[in-house]
Write a structure and sequence with these properties.
Layout lengths: L18 H8 L5 H23 L1 H32 L16
Helix pairs in contact: 1-2
Length: 103
């Protein structure tokens, strides 16, 4: 999503790095630990890419899931009010606990 304010960029922070983002980060971070973590992340990207190339059917299913995700979001958002309505007891049906009051 791009910003409509005219400045460009994202309106929110990303939740994950892309493979290119990790590669760019390695040019900035120079500590031993940062290098080791960067190598581990890059190896994870390589393993995922190899796994997906071997399992083409899984890649196809992931692509279809990504396409249908937006359509399901609207349906899921419509379900929440119904769940809230079912979770809220109707007024006037409170059952008193204990002995009945004498008049």
């Amino acid at each position: 999503m791009t910003s409509s304010s005219g400045y460009g960029g994202r309106r929110y922070l990303p939740h994950a790095f892309t493979e290119q983002g990790v590669a760019m980060l390695s040019s900035i971070l120079r500590s031993e630990r940062a290098i080791l973590v960067n190598i581990a992340i890059m190896r994870a990207f390589v393993n995922i890419r190899e796994y997906l190339s071997v399992h083409k059917d899984l890649a196809h299913q992931l692509e279809q899931l990504n396409r249908t995700q937006d359509g399901h979001a609207g349906h899921i958002n419509a379900i929440w009010p119904a769940i809230d309505e079912l979770a809220t007891p109707p007024p006037g049906l409170k059952k008193r606990i204990g002995y009945p009051e004498s008049k």
